[in-house]
Design a protein that fits this description.
By secondary structure, the chain is mainly beta. It has a single domain, classed as Calycin beta-barrel core domain (Lipocalin). 11% of the residues lie in helices and 50% in strands. The protein has one helix and ten strands, in the order αββββββββββ. The chain is globular.
Length: 170
């Protein structure tokens, strides 16, 4: 039969549980995950072409605390979607703002969609949308590819992933 824990043993157990719980929490708000300079590798042109579809992403160098990007999706020779992207340093955070456009540069959204960099490690950068369960992962592979994965929850709660793998354009 186990004896009831004494006050010091109980405090020690509670402290151990608290340490385990805190270790499972994300980094504190405001802690720098990465800086905009960590994205310098992204500058340039990236592309993937298949029989019917071309995806491309172009990025400027880091300058003035920002990087500008553009994504274009072309299907069967017709541009289906354009995306303008702004990466900027916001205090300790890196923030991504983007808007989608169709033909005639008609915006799909009323305002930019805002993502914050929430994780960064070994060439993987995860941006989380501020007001929706949506993430954008930018991954730099060892082979020199750029893989962008959009993960979004559908109405039924299932996560849908769309993956774009691109190589540096010549």
């Amino acid at each position: 039969m186990r004896r009831p824990r004494t006050g010091s043993a109980l405090r020690a157990a509670a402290l151990a549980a608290l340490v385990c719980l805190l270790g499972a929490l994300p980094a504190r708000a405001g802690a720098a995950v990465a800086t905009l300079d960590d994205f310098a590798w992204l500058a340039g042109s990236w592309m993937n072409e298949s029989e019917r579809t071309t995806t491309e992403e172009h990025w400027t160098d880091v300058r003035g605390g920002t990087m500008l990007g553009m994504f274009r999706l072309t299907v069967a020779g017709t541009a289906r979607m354009h995306e303008l992207i702004l990466l900027e340093q916001d205090g300790d955070d890196v923030v991504m703002r983007l808007r989608h456009f169709g033909a005639g540069m008609r915006a799909w959204e009323d305002a930019p969609i805002v993502f914050r960099l929430t994780e960064a490690a070994a060439g993987v950068y995860l941006f989380t949308q501020e007001d929706a369960p949506t993430t954008l992962e930018y991954r730099r592979t060892d082979e020199g590819s750029l893989v962008v994965t959009l993960s979004k929850q559908n109405d039924e709660g299932a996560v849908q992933r769309t993956r774009f793998e691109m190589r540096r354009a010549e």
